[in-house]
Design brief:
There is one protein chain. By secondary structure, the chain is α/β, with parallel strands linked by helices. It folds into two domains: about 200 residues, Rossmann fold; about 140 residues, Rossmann fold. The chain is about 35% helix and about 15% strand. It has 17 helices and 13 strands. A seven-stranded parallel sheet has the order 3-4-2-5-6-1-7, sandwiched between helices. It has a six-stranded parallel sheet with strand order 8-13-12-9-11-10, sandwiched between helices. Strand 12, helix 14 and strand 13 form a beta-alpha-beta unit. The longest helix has 14 residues. Belongs to the DEAD box helicase family. RhlE subfamily. InterPro entries: DEAD/DEAH_box_helicase_dom, DEAD/DEAH_RhlB, DEAD_box_RNA_helicase, DEAD_helicase_RhlE, Helicase_ATP-bd, Helicase_C-like, P-loop_NTPase, RNA-helicase_DEAD-box_CS.
Length: about 450
């Protein structure tokens, strides 16, 4: 199958050919015809499968045959969870539309809003945006959706993980009802399907990669190592293996900064990219990494979304992720388009639980290799025999909320407290009717105690 057989016009085919692509990937072969037919699509696709071109190419084909975009209007809206992914998708759109009379724009937070407002005065056939900045621009009347034809939610699973569901619902509420909807996600979780119910209509469902599976061309293994020795082990691997380019994942922003400083002290050119960095710093770090000026890019999971580098040879898990699915997302940065890649994880004894979850999710025991001179003092426990993954049970419908009685705390029923009986209620009623009586506490009579005839003094107010 060729791109020409999918019904794309000559300018798009030339742009694709200039990028060196000859045959569509499985996700492209299925998604492009469905989008061209105007159908709603739900596609499960991991990073590196070519999904961006899977929706970009047919959208450009459809828009090229439509009316000219008006001022402040948008004809196709692509929502992404992070700035980096928005920028990357924007580059793809601009590349493939170079020979078409179409315009595109990218808007995200972390930079000044005024230039974006000025840009949107011309309108954009394709707008790539993060949810928060899009709402800001809409509320300032810089963006209108009267001409909107297509909505794309890219990496919808990550949007939900990052808490964008409220913003997404606000955006959906102001869009025209008559539109084409495309939803792309790594998996079709229960939460994604719940979101899809109010979004897509009779969608074509596409799933081209086994769930939670990495590309077969990626070689995976772990190095058992003590937690405090991880930076030294990483530096040793970089220098001895002569890695020219590696993407390293840490669990925290501060951890990324500390590791970058450690590597820089050893003359290993490195840069960190995470949420606390300014947009300018993140863009510069990514550009330097792509150009080869920076050898090691240290990133957190969220910031790494949108990092799209051809032939990235190594991905290193300096810290294992808390969520096993993120392991698959991480190592999906290497081994793209049939190329070979390596995924190396530095694992300490404290991360045994995370390692077990990853091995169970991917249904494979990761090989172990000790680094010479760094035998861990605290041994990493052996992997358990793999158990097959159980299918998730459908969630039980929530019980109808029971209205609480007067005087009962709202959480009493949920916490297992008994409901107030009639007797205490009547007692409270009686006390309520005697409002005119003094409410002060009666002085207690002197009572003998077990230790002597000491009397208890009445409490006095401070």
């Amino acid at each position: 199958m060729s791109f020409a057989s999918l019904g794309l016009c000559t300018p798009i085919l030339e742009a694709v050919a200039n990028q060196g692509y000859e045959k569509p990937s499985p996700i492209q072969a299925q998604a492009i015809p469905a989008v061209l037919e105007g159908k709603d699509v739900m596609a499960a696709a991991q990073t590196g499968t070519g999904k961006t071109a899977g929706f970009t190419l047919p959208i450009l084909e459809r828009l090229s045959k439509g009316p000219k975009v008006r001022a402040n209007q948008v004809r196709a809206l692509i929502l992404t969870p992070t700035r980096e992914l928005a920028a990357q998708v924007g580059v793809n759109v601009a590349t493939y539309s170079k020979r078409l009379p179409l315009s595109s724009a990218v808007v995200f937070g972390g930079v000044k809003i005024n230039p974006q407002m000025m840009r949107m005065r011309q309108g954009a056939d394709v707008l790539v945006a993060t949810p928060g900045r899009l709402l800001d621009l809409y509320n300032q009347k810089a963006i209108k959706f009267d001409q909107l034809e297509v909505l794309v939610l890219d990496e919808a699973d990550r949007m939900l993980d990052m808490g964008f569901i409220r913003d997404i619902r606000k955006i959906l509420a102001v869009l025209p009802k008559n539109r084409q909807n495309l939803l792309f996600s790594a998996t079709f979780s229960d939460e994604i399907r719940q979101l899809a119910k109010g979004l897509v209509n009779d969608p074509v469902e596409i799933s081209v990669t086994p769930r939670n599976a990495a590309a077969p061309t990626v070689k995976q293994w772990i190095h058992p190592v003590d937690k405090k020795k991880k930076p030294a082990v990483l530096a040793k691997l970089i220098q001895e293996k002569k890695w020219k380019q590696a993407l390293v994942f840490t669990r925290t922003k501060h951890g990324a900064n500390r590791l970058t400083a450690f590597l820089e002290e050893r003359n290993i050119k490195s840069a960190a990219i995470h949420g606390n960095k300014s947009q300018g710093a993140r863009t510069k770090a990514l550009a330097n990494f792509k150009s080869g000026e920076v050898r090691i890019l240290v990133a957190t999971d969220i910031a790494a979304r949108g990092i799209d580098i051809d032939q990235l040879p190594q991905v290193v898990n300096f810290d294992l992720p808390n969520i096993a699915e993120d392991y698959v997302h991480r190592i999906g940065r290497t081994g793209r388009a049939g190329a070979e890649g390596q995924a190396i994880s530095l694992v300490c004894a404290d991360e045994y639980k995370e390692l077990t979850a990853i091995e169970r999710l991917t249904q494979q025991i990761l090989p172990r290799e000790e680094v010479f001179g760094f035998t861990p003092a605290i041994k990493l426990a052996e992997s358990q025999p793999l158990r097959p993954l159980k299918a998730k049970k459908p969630k039980k419908p929530k019980k109808p909320r029971i209205e609480h009685k007067d005087g009962q705390r709202s959480g009493d029923s949920a916490s297992g407290h008994r409901t107030a009986s009639k007797k205490p209620q009547s007692r409270r009623t009686n006390s309520a009717s005697n409002d005119n009586k003094p409410q002060g506490r009666k002085p207690q009579k002197n009572k003998p105690t077990g230790t002597g005839n000491k009397s208890r003094k009445p409490r006095t107010s401070a």
